[in-house]
């Protein structure tokens, strides 16, 4: 995860890769050993006896030098190797609206199949501007205030790289999504975590204020939050706005789970708060909203000055994203609230099923307010470390999970907390429940 804390040496176990990236997608085979696979730069520095020392192919000073595969790929490979049900992966196992898929397929057939406009096709930028107005009463300029990105992942990277200079500090709420630390490191910036604590995972406004220094450039806020499932409430949002305005900070908000709130919880974008629009880059993605995570169509919106800064980086990262998939997202956004509500309703049902399964097995669980995930303390199984638990779970009972330590600058802070994804079909959740019930016989206790 995120560990650009003070030097690259602290950068974590995983590199920046989206939730749900399959091992194959990032170059690992399903049978790859579960150990981290960081390339050893020294191993590449070969020198035959009697010859002068060779220059290493890969710089040991690269900001991601110590980073191997992401925790999602690592645990995904382990799940595959043991035929486990992968509740680690934050990717739905059923696709979103068929109308969107057909619109994208039709666009592929009819073209154009050449580069889409760098900022995104105009119809999608207009649809995004309409979405912001419809749901949040936010006015964004579809030409200068909206930028289509390759998933939210690129939006995060382009924002951090576009806003931060070497030596800057970026404050995040910890546990935090793994790409934050990696892109901060690439920007030469330092990730400064403000830690949220279970079981409530609430933001302490004083801790946030105390984290600001002369070097702070940006707050990188994720709500609804992965992995805790929290939705920031009024008090927390006010605290963030106060700190941002008082210290003149840019706020980058990752709102990919914006439409996946449950139990009456409501997502309120930070950009809607007084004095915040002009300093906020709002990021989102069609992936979670429409259960089409593989499409990787995301967007940034905000004031033209900030979007311009994101764009100047994004144009050199990918330049543009596939036009046909953008057309598919236009079709989805044109369908109004119904498909979005349907995705949320399905997830809500799956959330209930997994909560019952986990509670039935013996986990002490609190319903997440939003998102894809349930976090739980696994220490009752006899394993004190979440990573150890997740490494042994696939072989022991045939289920995959993710250790929360992967979301901390100091992985030890994750303790025995683990994350289970509920964006899976009911039969898969039920089968996972049958398998997890074996935990009550203490298969992990004996050898821990
Ligand atoms: C908090 C958060 N931000 C960003 C992303 C990546 O989004 P995308 O797949 O649109 O790049 C994810 C994916 O899991 C996420 O959980």
TrEMBL record:
Kinase is among the record's keywords: no
A Pfam family it matches: Aminotran_1_2
Necessary cofactors: pyridoxal 5'-phosphate
EC number: 2.6.1.17
Stretches for region Disordered: 1-61
Keywords associated with the record: Aminotransferase, Pyridoxal phosphate, Transferase
Any one GO molecular-function label of the UniProt entry: pyridoxal phosphate binding
Residue intervals of the Aminotransferase class I/classII large domain: 85-432
UniProt-listed Gene3D superfamilies: Aspartate Aminotransferase, domain 1 (3.90.1150.10), Type I PLP-dependent aspartate aminotransferase-like (Major domain) (3.40.640.10)
EC primary class: transferase
Protein name: Putative N-succinyldiaminopimelate aminotransferase DapC
